[in-house]
């Protein structure tokens, strides 16, 4: 799993590339903690996340809590139909602004 950070006009875009499961979740959580600013706008791009287990959902929840602890507005993009369905069934979807693309995420957060 690769975690990358890229600034886009005042918004931090963090991309996850690979599988987010029990094997990769601890390192991804550590990476996200380091990359998530204490304040600002963040789009978490999951369009290249090939698989997400319950451990991955926990990483998203912890990231949400970290964002709320500071003053970070967070949007998710690129959810696969499977991940979206799981997040909806568990109530996680309601925690996030969910958009279809990074560009829509940037727009949603900057309006």
**Rg, alpha carbons:** 12 Å
Structural class: alpha/beta
Overall number of domains: 1
Task: Give the second-level CATH assignment, the architecture.
Answer: 2-Layer Sandwich
Per CATH, what is the topology? Transcription Regulator spoIIAA
Mean pLDDT: 93
- End-to-end separation in angstroms reads 31 Å
Series of secondary-structure elements, N-terminal to C-terminal: EEHEHEHEH
Q: Number of helical runs?
A: 4
Question: What features would you describe in this structure?
Answer:
Pfam families: STAS. This is Anti-sigma factor antagonist. Belongs to the anti-sigma-factor antagonist family. The chain has about 110 residues and is an alpha/beta fold. It has one domain: STAS domain (Transcription Regulator spoIIAA), CATH 3.30.750. Helices cover about 40% and strands about 35% of the residues. It has helices at about 25-35, 55-70, 80-90, 100-110, and strands spanning about 1-10, 10-20, 40-50, 70-75, 95-100. A five-stranded mixed β-sheet has the order 1-2-3-4-5, with helices on both faces. Strand 3, helix 2 (about 55-70) and strand 4 (about 70-75) form a beta-alpha-beta unit. Helix 1 (about 25-35) runs parallel beside helix 2. The protein is globular. The model has no long low-confidence stretch (mean pLDDT about 95).
List the helices and strands and how they pair.
Elements: E1 2-8, E2 11-20, H1 25-35, E3 39-52, H2 54-69, E4 71-77, H3 81-90, E5 97-99, H4 102-110
Parallel strand pairs: 2-3, 3-4, 4-5
Antiparallel strand pairs: 1-2
Helix pairs in contact: 1-2
């Amino acid at each position: 799993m690769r975690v990358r950070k890229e600034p886009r006009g005042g918004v931090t875009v963090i991309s996850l590339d690979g599988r987010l499961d029990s094997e990769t979740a601890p390192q991804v959580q550590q990476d996200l903690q380091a990359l998530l600013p204490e304040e600002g706008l963040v789009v978490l791009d999951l369009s290249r996340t090939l698989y997400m287990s319950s451990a991955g959902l926990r990483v998203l929840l912890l990231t949400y809590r970290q964002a709320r602890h500071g003053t970070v507005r967070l949007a998710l993009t690129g959810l696969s139909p499977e991940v979206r369905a799981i997040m909806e069934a568990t109530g996680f979807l309601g925690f996030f602004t969910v958009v279809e693309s990074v560009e829509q995420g940037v727009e949603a957060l900057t309006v």
